[in-house]
Write a structure and sequence with these properties.
Chain A contains 3 helices and no strands. Chain A has 100 residues and is mainly alpha-helical. Chain A has one domain: ACP-like (Non-ribosomal Peptide Synthetase Peptidyl Carrier Protein, Chain A). In chain B, helix 3 packs parallel to helix 4. Chain B is globular. The chains are: A mainly alpha (100), B alpha/beta (309). Chain B: InterPro entries: ACP_syn_III_C, Thiolase-like.
């Protein structure tokens, strides 16, 4: 058994999918952060502005999976992907293992 | 030049799913799911009825290279993640030395590099033997600990410890496997409970471990593309993926086979992975390989050692 590089299964997302992911991330953030969160947009910084940690970030991705009944490849998920709500939505849209 | 003459390892048969360990330690289902999905950990080897001596004995019994050479062993080093592994006055390593005909050897522990202490012990063993100027002298490096407290079962947000042991014979000179270089970067500034420092540790982890590997490979007069395989510590897969990205080194050449089935076996991972690599035919005669580990706890240490097989 060896590690193989995994390529994203989906190309850059269509705008509707990205919007849907941004909405879902916005709705899940209070649950994951366990507090109310003020106005959130695609440009909101997850770590710097909201205090998301690497662990709560991963929790957010797995919660997103359950809510949208999607399977997301987390192999290539890196720190940069947690930059903003929008960058995380882009990662998820580009790394779906099931049809959105 | 220090050489590793023989390596053996032992893993108890028992396996426990990480979800079971996580539940016992009070982790949530989501936290366990992150370990399985993201860190790619699956189960850990545990021997609930055995002690430390049973683990180390398992490795020693498999060390065929020791048979008939006991009289040559001058030093026995137990490399430890934790400073204290059994309560006073127990001395399982000393008792095993008597059992295996090594009662004449100087026995001591090597630590304070946490999970990178195994590499420190190999280096120390080679230096001691070289200073003795006795070409026949050998040292025995033992690794392996019991995962019997919460702290010794879980590295928060990072890994689960499993039980197992390794034994390796070191000489001051010899053809296989010759140590070409060793680099270690002890980072005392991480000896704090401060949350910001913990986040900084997470931020620099992959880059600092990659830098230790690059330093060791450079000291050996080599380039990364000449390194056949990397034998990692089994902390988790994703940490090593990040190291590979920093190094520009193909992740399929990092022997991560055992991460999901044994967990992080304290200081023994590199030696266990050595045997996996050997069995898979990944170690080729004369080809350099790297054994690397990062240790955390009362500071952090990032270490890498280059060998020629």
């Amino acid at each position: 058994m060896t590690e193989q590089d995994t390529a994203p299964s989906a190309a850059a997302a269509d705008p509707a999918l990205r919007d849907r992911l941004v909405d879902s991330i916005r709705e899940l953030l209070p649950h994951v952060l366990k507090r109310e969160v003020a106005e959130v947009t695609a440009d909101t910084e997850l770590m710097d502005a909201l205090g998301l940690s690497s662990t709560t970030g991963l929790e957010l991705v797995l919660e997103l999976e359950e809510r949208l009944e999607l399977e997301i490849s987390v192999e290539e998920l890196g720190r940069d992907d947690f930059g903003t709500v929008g960058s995380l939505a882009d990662y998820v849209a580009g790394n779906l293992l099931t049809e959105a | 030049m220090t050489a590793v003459v023989a390596v053996a390892a032992y893993l108890p048969e028992g396996r426990v799913r990480i979800e079971e360990v996580a539940g016992r330690l009070g982790l949530s289902g989501m936290q366990a799911k992150i370990f399985r999905r993201y860190h790619k950990l699956g189960e850990v080897a545990l021997d609930p009825h055995g002690g430390l001596a049973d683990l180390l004995r398992g490795a020693l019994r498999r060390l065929d290279g020791l048979r008939g050479q006991e009289h040559r062993v001058r030093y026995v080093l137990h490399a430890r993640t934790f400073p204290t592994v059994v309560p006073y006055p127990h001395d399982p390593v000393g008792e095993l030395c008597e059992e295996f005909g090594l009662g004449h050897a100087a026995v001591f522990a090597v630590g304070h590099h946490a999970c990178a202490s195994g590499l420190l012990a190999v280096d120390a063993a080679g230096r001691l033997l070289a200073a003795d100027d006795d070409r026949d002298g050998l040292a025995l490096v033992l690794t392996g600990e019991k995962a019997f407290t919460g702290e010794a079962q879980l590295v928060p947000e990072t890994s689960f410890f499993g039980e197992g042991a390794a034994a390796c014979l070191v000489s001051a000179a010899g053809e296989r496997d010759r140590m070409l270089a060793y680099a270690t970067d002890p980072r005392g500034e991480f000896d704090t409970d401060d949350q910001e420092t913990a986040l900084e540790f997470q931020r620099v982890y992959a880059d600092t471990l990659a830098a230790a590997i690059t330093a060791a490979v450079g000291r050996a007069g080599l380039a990364m593309d000449e390194v056949g395989v990397i034998l990692p510590h089994n902390v988790n897969r994703v940490a090593w993926h990040q190291v590979c990205r920093t190094l520009g080194y193909p992740r399929e050449r990092v022997v991560l086979d055992n991460v999901a089935t044994t967990g992080h076996v304290f200081c023994a991972d590199g030696f266990i992975n050595y045997l996996t690599a050997r069995d898979r035919g990944l170690l080729r005669q004369g080809e350099p390989y790297v054994m690397a580990a990062a240790g955390a706890g009362s500071g952090a240490t990032f270490s890498a050692m280059v060998f020629a097989h």
